[in-house]
Amino acid sequence: MNFLSHEIWNELQLPDWRGRFFIECFTESLSVMTSHFHQAKMMGVTDLAEEILQNISLYEENDKGKNYLLASINELRKCLKTDLTSALLFSDIKEYYEDRVKTLNPEKPQKSSIAQIGTLCKRITDNKINYFTTLKEILLDSLFTEKDITKKHTIAIEIHALTNSYVTFLLNAGYSPKYLYNKSELLTRKSNYNTRTFKDQVIFLFTTLDCKKREFTTFFALKTNKLSTVHNLATSKNVKAITQIPEKHFTISNDTFSKFEPDFYLKITYEALDYVGAALTASSLLEAEIDFLKTLSSSIKILPH
To answer: Where are the domains positioned within the chain?
Structure first.
């Protein structure tokens, strides 16, 4: 985790201590150097509800999955008690869910209770987008609404909990920790603000991290002793063998591959939330294609760059 100097903090001109605390919570929850109990939780309310629905299906097929189901039900129970967004969004669910869990027989869970818990979980998962929107609204309110900011302990607990829930949602949506950690520079580098205030910059960050997948294209240069085998490779939806890189990508790619002198390229196109995840997926697809080519010809040699 990078520690910012006092000069950088002063340059950011944050409205009050809440801004700095939010930035520190956001980066701390993503840093690999942070102790695990300070990092973002593995699963949030909507993720646990989805897991329960999956475990109910497994339990209905095989009752040996009972312990997994009961564990996930209890995890959601604890999460609903502490989650600030749920207190606002799922106020009509929390009490009824608690009653269903209390009456659940752990030795032989009643089918009617399981069905009712499933219905409540379905209500939660159906509101996943609404949950994310509400979470961001509550977090913005906690950061920027006028209040008695001398009550640091109470406010800090709230900001820490909401920030962790926000990061947890993003991670479970599919964003890579490295990408999110790098995105914190939107808040810590004054040059990224342009004319925006700190509040505007936080909103800009929230807008950027919209959990929508986008198409990324990766090119790999390869050498081979069996170019004829590559020419016979049938292209798939995501992977295509090409002899040269399209002109719009040529400048960067030419500098990258100039000394390698490749025999062909693999163009891999994939939808992902961020470039880090797209690169990791592209690397996996590259390995699969190389394995496939080696299956077609045992004497083929392929060297990727």
So the answer is: 6-39+130-208, 45-126, 214-304
